[in-house]
């Protein structure tokens, strides 16, 4: 759970505190002790202990043999069941599988959430997968990812719109190739609109290229998200994928059997 700017941890009460504890558990896959949790959510240990007891009763938290707390199996079961039943996840998996089989690279389906893209689905090839920093449910800055630029190109049609979207916060720059200001980002989005696809040329991770196209899973006119193919620069040149754009579009449209 992310607190709003005008909220502080010591103002958490009741259900908010339980949710803050649950969110902290999600950030600690190796577990966390009671004292450390109390510090993390800035609450008294007895109060945090009661919150953890409530989560344990629901199966949302578990205490291991060392006294550390981790997410409970019931929470994980519900989360994964919900994810699996999402219509966009179900509909996109055959598309991701076809792209993964054709190009032998990692493929993603992502949606836009403010300044971020959220990865809804990811599929790695059976062999030769490159370890990327993306995970299902994870986020990356929209302006320096191919999926993000693909979706922003449909929303920010002029430089003023880009400036308004950036606001007073500077753009994150994961690499030296990442866009640094509104002018650069506007030019990149103009290129996306002209090409009909988006590229991340080592803008989010060094040595990694990404190539993205829009996905229309829930509407024929409004993209539900974007699909990307990601791989090492030396073995997945962007030009190769651009030349294969008709095939990629056909797969995303559902035509997975291509001559």
From TrEMBL:
HTH iclR-type domain ranges (all copies): 12-73
One example of a Gene Ontology biological process annotation: negative regulation of DNA-templated transcription
Domain named IclR-ED: residues: 74-259
Domain of life: Bacteria
Gene3D superfamilies listed in its UniProt record: 3.30.450.40, Winged helix-like DNA-binding domain superfamily/Winged helix DNA-binding domain
Keywords per UniProt: DNA-binding, Transcription, Transcription regulation
Protein's name in the database: IclR family transcriptional regulator
GO MF annotations in UniProt: DNA binding; DNA-binding transcription factor activity
